[in-house]
Structure formats: C-alpha cells, structure tokens
Amino acid sequence: MHLGLFLLGTGSHVAGWRYPGAVDSFQDMAALRQIARTAERGRFDMIFMGDNLYADPAAHPSYTLRLEPLTMLSALAASTTHIGLGATVATTYSDPFTVARAFASLDHISGGRAAWNAVTGASPAAAPNFGKLHPNHAERYAIAREFLGVVKGLWDCWADDAVVADRSSGLYIDPSRVRALDHDGPHFQVKGPVNIGRSPQGHPVVLQAGGSEPGHALAAATADVVFSVVQDFEEARAGYAALKARLPPLGRRPEDVTILPGVMPVVGRTDKEAFDKLAVLQGFVDGGNARQLLSDRLGVDMGGYDLDGPIPDIPLPDTYHSFASVMLGKARREGMTLRDLYNLTAAARGHWVLCGSAERIADTLEQWFTGGAADGFNVMPPWFHEGFEDFVGLVVPILQERGLFRQEYAGTTLRENLGLERPGRAA
C-alpha cells in the first residue's frame, strides 16, 4: 500500500494543538523538518499540504495561520531525500504559466519529488482577495480542465534533450527541441514555452480531491493520485471501483491512478489507551468552533438548528460536495443528531476517524487495502509529534511485517515510489 502524510502543523484535529506537548504552530520550520524526517523514516510516499486563500480566525488554526506551501516544501526538499512533496494550488485563483513553472522548479529542486494538488478552490471566501467573483461549480471545473491542459502542455514544451550545452560548438539549447504552446482557449491565452526545462519526472505528479461528478471525471482524465473522503467500507469500495472503471475508456489503466482515502488514526498500545487519547482531544472541542467548521463544510449556517435534533434536510452545497455528501450520508444512515455530526467534523473535518490499538488499526487498513477500497491512505495525524510518531513507530512496522508496506524506497522520484510511469512528451 501507499501512504501519504496530510500535514497540518497543529494536527488534523481542530484542537490537536492543545494536547499536552503538541506542536502549536504551522510556522515552525524546526518542527516541520522533524515531521518530514519522521515521515521519511516511516517510508511514506509523500508529504501533502492542503491550502486555502483566506484567513478566518474561527476556522481550523492551521488553515488560518500557515506558511505558503510551495515555499515551505522547497525548504523541506533540502532536508529530505526520498519523500514526495505535494501542495495544493487552486486553478480558480492562479494562472497556468506560474503554476507550471513553480512545480517544475520544485521538481528540479527536489530531484523529482514534486506533486501538484489541482483543486478548483471550493470556498467563495477567497474571491475578494483576488478581486473577482467566485465562479459556480460547473464553471470552476471548466476552468480547471483547461488549466490542467495548459500546465501539462507547458511541461511538454521542452524535450528531455533540449539542453545541449556543447562547449565546442557554443550551442546551449537546441531550438528544434523547444516549442511554443500557442494555447488560445475560452479562459486562458498562453503562448509558452515556460522558461524552465523538462522536469525530472517528465510531469510532476498530479493529485486531485474532487468528490462531485465533475471532480471524478476530471480525476479520471488527468490525475495520478486521488484523495477521497470516506466513512464507510462498502461506500469506499464502490467509489474505488467506479473511479477505476472510468479509466479504460480514457486509454488509462487502473494502476495509473492511486486512490488514497483520508484517515485520522488515533493510535494506542491498547484500544483503551487510544480511546483515552481521543477523549482528551474531544474534551477540548468548543461547540462554537465545531459548529463553524460544520457550517463551512455543509455550506449552510448551522447556527439556527437544534443541536440535539435530527439532521436537517439541506441540499448539497456548491462548495465542498464530497465532504457534505459523505458526512450527511453517514449521519442519516446512523441516525445522528447535529451534535453528533459536529463532533465528527471537529475530530477530522469530515474525514474517517480510526481509533484503537496499533494491531486493530493495521487490521482495518489491511482490510480496506486487500478488499478493494483503497490503494493506500492519506494519513492525517490528530496532533504532532506524538500522534504521528505513534503511527510510524507502532502501525507501520506491523504493515511491513505483513508484507503490505515497503521496507525501503523503490526509487528516488515520487513516480517511481508510487509505481507510476514517467510520461513521455506529448506530440
């Protein structure tokens, strides 16, 4: 199986920073370097950083106060050797030339370990920071599809052998091996070429996390790795099979896309120890903060609803489709109250929470992996450092002993470690 680390400096739990001894800043490079070294010691495939483009003091602290992802990952590239480095950049509020150049640069800096999470940018709160209106869901995906095509086209402007650097002839760049893009589309006009040579991976790895129908279609057409939001094994297995089935008609193989559900593991040496840790975390949850997180995820102000009443009948929002669909589905299946749901949201922002002994957690991950629900997992530690060290020190060795996870890295690039082919240059 493959393992990614979803990195939030204060932990994925909204109150993870309050756990005794926890890291309490997402701006502490010494702590971030230690986390990266732990992930590499655990032979994780990649570190992944989500992002947002606005500051809300009531939101999760690591989304409100953080380092810019590409800058931070470039710094971490110098203190790591094998682990992949993935970051989110939204297509709605960026331009393709800059994104192509930035991720190609990170790929060169890291020796072939860069990954771009191409999201549309779900929250309209970012729009005023860029002086524009937030496009609707369909328009965001139309922009994203064109954006991705332009970025990949720019990465292909340079052939691998375009840089000659022949001292005797004086020829540095073979002009026949470099081409313009000359893209003229409904949303972008980009001439190219980008002013950086072809990256070590050919293309940096492309990540996607969209859970709506347009999101699944875009992922099937363009992604190398898909992050999914899950709560239920059978639902995850059905979603896994459905996405893999989309690939052959597009000329892609099932193994060309790696599917990693997000999971927040709370690990103990015994089940009781793990549940005691979770109880400490949940004891820090402030109802107002959790309600704010829930309102954000569901796209509806939940302030006027009875916390101990049934889940209200609300439509799926134009923002976080996958989170809302999974969370509302689980809540209605299990007869949750709104209070139950916001406690779940506080715990992992709508992701799957897995609490128990290291053996129990390894058993569950093995079931999902061998049962066709996942190719691995995007691990979301509730806090650092202990909350992550527990997983690396207790769960990873069990997975290795069972032959489910690598003992050593397969190669030096992220594509090699994910078992993905290096893309050739498009004609």
Structure in words:
With 427 residues, the protein is of the alpha/beta class. The protein has helices at residues 29-41, 61-64, 69-77, 96-110, 137-155, 213-222, 233-245, 271-283, 287-298, 321-333, 338-348, 358-370, 386-401, 414-418, and strands at residues 2-6, 46-49, 84-90, 114-119, 183-184, 189-190, 205-208, 225-228, 258-268, 352-357, 376-379. It has one domain (2-268, 353-418): Luciferase-like domain (TIM Barrel, Alpha-Beta Barrel), CATH 3.20.20. An 8-stranded parallel barrel has the order 1-2-3-4-7-8-9-11, surrounded by 7 helices. Strands 5-6 form a two-stranded antiparallel sheet. It is globular and about 75 Å long.
Radius of gyration from the alpha-carbon trace, in angstroms = 21 Å
CATH top level class name = Alpha Beta
Count of strand segments: 11
Taken together, the total number of domains comes to 1
CATH architecture: Alpha-Beta Barrel
Indicate the mean pLDDT.
Answer: 91
Distance between the termini: 33 Å
CATH topology descriptor: TIM Barrel
Ranges where pLDDT stays below 50 over 5 or more residues in a row are none
Short description:
The protein is an alpha/beta fold. The chain has helices at 29-41, 61-64, 69-77, 96-110, 137-155, 213-222, 233-245, 271-283, 287-298, 321-333, 338-348, 358-370, 386-401, 414-418; strands spanning 2-6, 46-49, 84-90, 114-119, 183-184, 189-190, 205-208, 225-228, 258-268, 352-357, 376-379.
